[in-house]
Each structure stands twice: as structure tokens, then as C-alpha cells.
Amino acid sequence: MTTTLLAFMMPGPMELGVIAIVALLLFGGRLPKVARDVGGAMFELRRGISEAFTEAEEFEAKCSELDKPKKKSTA
Predict the structure, then answer these.
(1) d(C-alpha 56, C-alpha 70), whole Å
(2) What predicted TM-score, i.e. pTM, was given to this entire model?
(3) Every domain of the chain and the residues it spans
(4) Which of 5, 19, 35, 69 is the most exposed place for a label (fewest CB within 10 A)?
């Protein structure tokens, strides 16, 4: 049942061709700029995710340092 339902929802090669032609007609002259903007947005998203992971790892390292019991000096 699910596979037949998905088969009706997926566009075939003819439909993809029609979509591509419509996209070229709508965005013809602006297509390179649109593609560049989308690529830049993807780059910024990846960089932001990378920075977030780095900050999370640094925060985790600081928290684990605070959780360690400090040794008392016997001087």
C-alpha cells in the first residue's frame, strides 16, 4: 500500500523535464544568481552548524572540568 502511494507521488522523467523547462522560463536570466545564492546559504548553514558543534564541545569540556573534584594541597 505504502509503496504504491509513493509511486504516485514521485514525478517521473517527463514531469521533471516539464518542471525544469518551467524553472528555466521563470528564472532564465536569474538562474546563475539564484544558484549562487543557494550555494552561499548552504555554505553559511554548514559553517554555522560546525561552529555550534565546536562551541558545544568546548562547553562540555569546561563543564567536565568543573565536575572534577579538586585535590587539596597538604602544605
Answers:
(1) 24
(2) 0.51
(3) 36-65
(4) 69
SS3 of 28, please? coil
Residues 13 and 4: their CA atoms lie apart, in Å, by: 18
What are the two backbone dihedrals, phi and then psi, of residue 33, each rounded to the nearest 5 degrees?
Answer: -65, -40
SS (H, E, C) 36-61: HHHHHHHHHHHHHHHHHHHHHHHHHH
- C-alpha cell recorded at residue 68: 572534577
pLDDT in tens, 36-45: 999 999 999 9
| b/e map 8-35, b = 16+ CB within 10 Å | eeeeeeeeeeeeeeeeeeeeeeeeeeee
**What is the greatest pairwise CA distance in the chain?**
83
Stronger pLDDT, 5 or 16, i.e. the higher one: 16
